[in-house]
Structure formats: structure tokens, C-alpha cells
Amino acid sequence: MHELSIAKTLFEEARQMAFKLRIDRISRIKIKMGVASGIDIDMLKHSLIDHMFPESIAEDAQIEITLEPLIAKCKQCGNEITQVGISGGCPKCSSRELDIISGIKVVIEDVE
């Protein structure tokens, strides 16, 4: 269950953000998660709410998750490809040399 270790990292980032913003209680944590991150959203929420939040600065915090689409850029022609077309390579030039631009990371966007 790698969601627990990810939850620990995200929780620590949220605490650091709250400290910098001089927030005493976190009421909401906004997370941006790539659709290709491989993380189970329900397990991540469970890990945060049941294992990280109790008796902490974020005890009653709400979790808001925004999904980020998988987008790649073709190294050959520069075409941007969305998740639907990535598996077959670039639909414009057929190259399989792609750089992932977004859709694989998980980050804290904001804390309130």
C-alpha cells in the first residue's frame, strides 16, 4: 500500500505550507493528481483521514482532489497528445518518442 507513504509525504508538505502561511488549523487540502500516477484515490483519502489527520493540525480537514490529464509531447514533431492517443504513439508522425508533460505527479496545490 504505497498510498500510505505518499499520504505521509503530502501531509508533511501540507503542514509546511500551513506553517509558511501561518495557518493554525488546516480546513482543506487541495491536491492535484495525475490520472497516470498509479495512486488509488480512495486509499489515499483513507490514509490521510485515518492515519495522518487524527490529533493533528488537519484533524477535520477536507480533501479536494483535482485530476490532471495525461499529456505527452512528441520529440519528433512537437505534437501534444492527450491520454487517449498516447498508447499508439504520435498520431501525427507515428513516433513513439514522447516526453510526458503532465498527468503522473501528485502535488499539494493549496491549504486553507
From TrEMBL:
Tell me which domain of life the UniProt entry assigns to the organism this sequence originates from. Answer: Bacteria
Q: What one GO molecular function would you report for this record?
A: zinc ion binding
Please give the Gene3D superfamilies that the UniProt record associates with this protein.
3.30.2320.80
User: Does the UniProt entry include the keyword Zinc?
Assistant: yes
One Pfam family recorded for the sequence? HypA
Q: Which InterPro entries does this chain map to?
A: HypA/HybF
User: Keyword Nucleus on this protein?
Assistant: no
* Keywords tagged on the record: Metal-binding, Nickel, Zinc
Q: Which GO terms describe its biological process?
A: protein maturation
PANTHER family the UniProt entry points to: HYDROGENASE MATURATION FACTOR HYPA
Protein name stated in the entry: Hydrogenase maturation factor HypA
Gene source species: Candidatus Taenaricola geysiri
